[in-house]
């Protein structure tokens, strides 16, 4: 099982980016998938989560209405579309798969598989 995150970069405030999480060893329908982020000096925090059963999504309040998760079965990839980006969105973004249970989805300890991070910097 592997996850490969990509798509980060430097973007101006109010700009957009789309992150990709390419899956190998399993499919989009296999496990729930989540995106986390970690800013310098801060704990890793959950950003969004997508159910593998029905594609339902959940987001933390700070990104609701701006971030959107989606999955592409044909490409075996999960995306995080980020619009109206703010400087406070600057962080390393990670994708994770398979909830271990017993914790809220926003808790990084509750996820089994992790991809490497991709840096997102929002700055003018």
Your description of this structure?
The protein is an all-beta fold. The strands form 2 sheets. Strands 2, 4, 5, 6, 9, 10 and 11 form a 7-stranded mixed β-sheet that branches. Strand 4 and strand 5 form a beta hairpin. The radius of gyration is 13 Å and the shape is globular. 31% of the residues are buried.
Key traits:
7-stranded mixed beta sheet, 4-stranded antiparallel beta sheet, mainly beta, 124 residues, 11 strands
| Count of strand segments | 11
The rounded Rg comes to 13 Å
The sequence of SSEs as H and E is EEEEEEEEEEE
**How many H/I helices?**
0
| Estimated share of beta-strand residues | over 45%
Low-confidence stretches: none
Topology of helices and strands:
Blueprint: E1 2-6, E2 9-11, E3 17-24, E4 33-38, E5 45-50, E6 57-59, E7 67-72, E8 77-82, E9 91-99, E10 111-114, E11 118-122
Parallel strand pairs: 2-11
Antiparallel strand pairs: 1-3, 3-8, 4-5, 4-9, 5-6, 7-8, 9-10, 9-11
In short:
The protein is mainly β and 124 residues long.
């Amino acid at each position: 099982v592997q996850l490969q995150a990509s798509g980060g970069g430097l973007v101006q405030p109010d700009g957009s980016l789309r992150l990709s999480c390419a899956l190998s060893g399993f499919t989009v329908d296999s496990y729930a998938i989540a995106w986390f982020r970690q800013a310098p000096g801060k704990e890793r925090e959950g950003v969004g989560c997508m159910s593998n059963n029905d594609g339902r999504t959940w987001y933390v309040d700070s990104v609701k209405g701006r971030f959107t998760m989606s999955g592409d079965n044909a490409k075996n990839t999960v995306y995080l579309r980020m619009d109206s980006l703010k400087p406070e969105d600057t962080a390393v973004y990670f994708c994770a798969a398979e909830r271990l249970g017993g914790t809220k989805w926003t808790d990084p300890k509750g996820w089994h598989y992790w991809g490497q991070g991709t840096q997102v910097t929002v700055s003018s």
